[in-house]
Design a protein that fits this description.
alpha+beta, Jelly Rolls, 2 domains, 6-stranded antiparallel β-sheet, 5-stranded antiparallel β-sheet, rod-shaped
Length: about 230
Amino acid sequence: MNGITVCLLALCCCLSETQAQENNQDQKACCLSNPGCLMKELVSIGEKLGTMVEKQGTMGDNLRLMETRLQTSEKEVEELKRLTGGQPKVAFSAAFRESGSGDTGPFNTNTPLQYKKVFSNTDNCYNPATGIFTATVKGMYYFRFTTMNNQANPPSSVVSLTKNGQSLATVWDHGSTDTNDSGSNAVVISLEVGDNVYVELWAKKLVYEDSNLYLTTFSGFLLFAM
């Protein structure tokens, strides 16, 4: 008896599934023959496509954002490598003349001095063609400059250490009865990347340098990065 019941239930299930498939096929056939039904189906497909396009756009934006973040991270990693790899090395020292003796100046206006005899120039921050040091690392720097005057040929010597056009420290030597005088000054200052430092000869003044290594010099180095 139980076996007959199970067979009947199985037969009913098969008939129901067959009927459902036939109904689904009938609905599709009906939709294809009905313009209104077909329009609804097309609208539904269009909405689904629109949603997919929107998601694709969002994915594109996210991808570009990830690329930007990756580039930023790579720059930060490179900077970290540079810092953790040791203290940035910035230092230079130069004298005014490559050889010989003689005066420079006087000029009618304040003039940056071009120290052409380079003793050292680590990181190439000093430009002997212009006499200008340009910071490539933000940090605290030490600068020292000297001047010499041949009093046999007045006028006096006046030079100033200058940062971005602003005088910071000056060496002055007035002509007198002695033969030669030297003077020097120094500062410790903070610099941003791109700041310029140079020594400026005042208008109507001069500096002297001697072949016996009595020099007019300009030197500086990075104390520590910030």
